[in-house]
Amino acid sequence: LTAARQAAARAYELDRRHVFHSWSAQAQIDPMTISASQGCYVWDGEGNRLLDFSSQLVNTNIGHQHPKVVAAVQQQAAKLCTVAPQHVNDARSEAARLIAERTPGELNKIFFTNGGAEAVEHAVRLARLHTGRHKVLARYRSYHGGTETAINLTGDPRRWPNDHGNSAVVHFFGPFLYRTQFHAGDESEETERALAHLEQTIAFEGPSTIAAIVLESIPGTAGIMIPPPGYLAGVRALCDKYGIIFIADEVMSGFGRTGKWFAIEHFEGVTPDLLTFAKGVNSGYVPLGGVAISPAIAATFDNRAYPGGLTYSGHPLATAAAVATITAMADEGIVENAAEIGARVLGPGLRELAEHHPSIGEVRGTGVFWALELVRDRATREPLAPYGGTSAAMTEVVAACRAAGLLMFVNFNRLHVVPPCIVSEAEAKEGLAILDRALTVADQHTS
Ligand code: PLP
């Protein structure tokens, strides 16, 4: 064994003995070791190189080990590692400016958190205090984070064991034409009926009790379902009509993932009141999230204390990483690259795969944000794994990808193609070629 392999084996042994993992039955997992990373690649404990089509948890938008971000963290560490949140710090100030310049409309005040779930927690708290109302509406097929409020907003089975019946969250169905809840035949019917359903939910829950509607601008983990034209504008109009705060969760979809700085920019004229971000803001080099706040909501706390805070709000290492990340993304055309690779390589490439793989039920996405909906039967659309579960077929496809050097993001019956925004045409094609071979495994499970 080389020294590196020995170190990896030791890390694995200690992990299994002492580390308690997220979302897992601890005795049933065999976690993969990652010992190095660069650009769009990672190396496992045996030294195998894998193309990272997952961007880890869809967060390394700028790729792994970007030299300018690494240098910024190193320089900030040498200069000033930490300050209490009440003090001014140049890294935090500059990060807030760079973020505020990119958020839609006038969302110009930034409250920093350590990650996405906390951003969602604080967005909901801001909305509740601003409106004096308590209920929050969120959609089924969504993910908003693992903390108490965020997991109860989440519309997937991970909510169930965390739902103690006191979250004041009400779920509704969002638009998803491929698996329509509304018996819609096309996108315009889906939009119209999904909005009617939402308005009826508001009416039956009582508009005067509803503080906020929380929506991922484009739902990520739940399946990358791009809202049909008019839907988000319709949600905005309903929020205005009933005095409800519109919270756009851009934790996964923000900072270049969809080929724009924020996914909401794909929907002209739609500005949320609060926008949550994390992940791509600094590609996770140091934990960071936050909420961008409208002037009206910010003004609520001009002469009234905001009852919330964190020791590490706007941590210098995290915000210095954000400054370097956003600056490099702008200087190097990284958001434009995500748009271009999506439009020219990934979109056409994935649609071509769908032509000869019967296991692909639908291809959807934009930028470097794509989902393959895998099915047993194209006619019935029966998923290759049940909602909330997995299957031998899904496990085999993912293993085939991994064996061929491709790391995928998986959720139930879906494979998500979510490489870093820096992915080159050659890398995208390399991943597509591996997927092409791996999908023959899924095809064997179709009827
Ligand atoms: N919101 C969305 C849309 C997410 O995708 C995630 C994480 O995947 C979160 C919130 C939670 O973020 P974090 O895991 O940083 O708490």
Can you summarize this structure?
This protein is of the alpha/beta class.
Walk me through what this model shows.
Keywords: Aminotransferase, Pyridoxal phosphate, Transferase. Belongs to the class-III pyridoxal-phosphate-dependent aminotransferase family. One of its GO terms (molecular function) is transaminase activity. This protein is an alpha/beta fold. It has 2 domains: 32-65 and 333-443, Aspartate Aminotransferase, domain 1 (Alpha-Beta Complex), CATH 3.90.1150; 67-331, 3-Layer(aba) Sandwich (Aspartate Aminotransferase, domain 2). Helices cover 39% and strands 17% of the residues. The strands form 3 sheets. Strands 4-10-9-8-7-5-6 form a 7-stranded mixed β-sheet, sandwiched between helices. Strands 11, 12, 13, 15 and 16 form a 5-stranded antiparallel β-sheet that branches. Strand 5, helix 6 (148-153) and strand 6 (169-172) form a beta-alpha-beta unit. The longest helix is centred in the last third of the chain and has 23 residues, at 334-356. The protein is globular, with a radius of gyration of 22 Å. The mean pLDDT is 98. The site of pyridoxal-5'-phosphate has 17 residues, from helix 5.
The proportion of strand residues reads: 15-25%
Count of structural domains: 2
Query: Which strand order does the major sheet show?
Result: 4-10-9-8-7-5-6
Quaternary state of the chains: single chain
Number of DSSP E strands: 16
Main pleated sheet = 7 strands, mixed
Radius of gyration based on Cα positions: 22 Å
Q: Which runs of at least 5 residues are low in confidence (pLDDT < 50)?
A: none
Query: How many DSSP H or I helices?
Result: 13
At the fourth level of CATH, the homologous superfamily of the largest domain is Type I PLP-dependent aspartate aminotransferase-like (Major domain)
